[in-house]
Batch of 2 targets.
Target 1
Amino acid sequence: MIISICLPTYNRAIKLNKQLTIFYNQLKSINYKYELIISDNNSTDKTSDIIKKFKKKFSKLQNVRFVVNKNKFNLGFTKNFLKTIGLSSGHYSIILSDDDFPKNNFYKKLYEYIIIKKPKGLIFIPLSKKDVISNYKINYLKQFTKVNQRSGTMSGIIFRTKFISKKYITNKTLYPQIHMSINYYLRFGLHHMKLDEYLHFTEERNLVSKFNDNMNRPSDYGVLERFNIIDTYYKKKKIIFKDFFLSFLSMTYWFNDIKYTLKNNNNSQNIINNFNKSVFYNINRKVTFFIANIFIIFLPFKFSGKLRLSFRVFILKELLKILVTNK
């Protein structure tokens, strides 16, 4: 059995070097077969040099197939991402970001888990110790919501390669992995991975920088697309209202959480204002959006995670601001 690692990259030579070093150090001491696929979106830094260095090192390992694609020009995130999926030939394919790093013995334990369990459902590799624990807890009520929410982070999503679907993905799609995950989940369900190893998820501390990053997110930060993805599957009767509303609720929470994080940045008020306008003026379900905000404000504390009073008051003020502005 071969497991494929699908790794799109662009101008992250230092992080890619660390990622490939981890992969090499772990694979050289085991005999399990892996395929590592890198698609370089025409990087202008030293990415090519890093790839060339590791191509020579991997050539000495019998258990690693190293596949490299370099685009002649920058195709954008989605096309480059799809290149790695298209080149995958393993039984299972894992999406991996170049800046989310596996812990020790990760590849060994992952291979052993898959070869023993032979999972059919969609798999999410834990991104933290907290995820390791939560993966042992199954909540069927919120299962679709988990798929929609977790697949927004592309690292650690596992599919059986031959069943990957690109349905509803266009060249303008910012989150192709969400469509892949939902399509796969609707067909095969979710496999709750019980693995103690995890990926170290490197979350960008400066949220402002994400409004101008390699994914070319628009002023709505890609939030509208997340709402529209849920809407698409509901309109096409792929999901029931419960799954639609709970997912819509979680995206509304995310929308407010982004603003709440940004408000502590002195230079982000214009971003927040543009963010509000971009989402409110263009969201398809304004009534549902308002209802979801009211739900979040008045949710019982035991269901609301970090929904402390200051956060609720912030959401209420923002909601009133939108209402007053758009009278």
Note: Residues 3-200 form a domain with the Spore Coat Polysaccharide Biosynthesis Protein SpsA; Chain A fold (CATH 3.90.550.10).
Target 2
Amino acid sequence: MYKYAFCIPFLYIYIFIKKTNLKKYHLYFFINKKFFYVPLLLKLISIKYIIESYDNKKEEFEKLLDIELTEQDGKLVYSSTLDISSKLYQLGVIVTELPENLRVIGDLILVDSDITQLPKGLEIEGSLIANSLKIKELPNDIKVKESVYLAESDIETLPNGLHLEFTLSVANTPIKTLPSDLEVKENLYINGTDIEDLPNTIKNVKWFFDCL
């Protein structure tokens, strides 16, 4: 019977999931080095949430990322740079989606995160930093003020209405065309793409790296 002893901790976890209302969450397990079972000591098993959806978006997002949001004009506002990447290392929390109508006053940093789709109504006063992200498109209503960094990502298309003060980087991505009304005032990086033509709105870019 002892050969099945290692299954007992997982049985307790299964019962815990069934008895709690965690239907909208997956669980991510960190097991500290080894189990303890007779005659060994059982080590603590700590459970962290992989955030995929929220019953109460504002409160759940604040609690699980240890941040504070304010509600303004239908937006959930974060008043500084929001670094989702660092939360993985600081809190052991893996974020796979963001709440809709999120407004970030600083930068939104998603490098190495598990987000595959950005929410509707996203506004970023600083830059979107999402290099290497497995994301194929941006929301049609996204607003980014400064720069967009999507190098080495899976981006295939960009929305109309993207007007950037500084930089757009889509280097080494599958993207083939740029929006006809795209505006970038300083740097444009398209090396490693199949982009052949630039929109007429791109004229005064300071630095341009062609892939041809």
Note: Residues 16-55 have pLDDT under 50 and may be disordered.
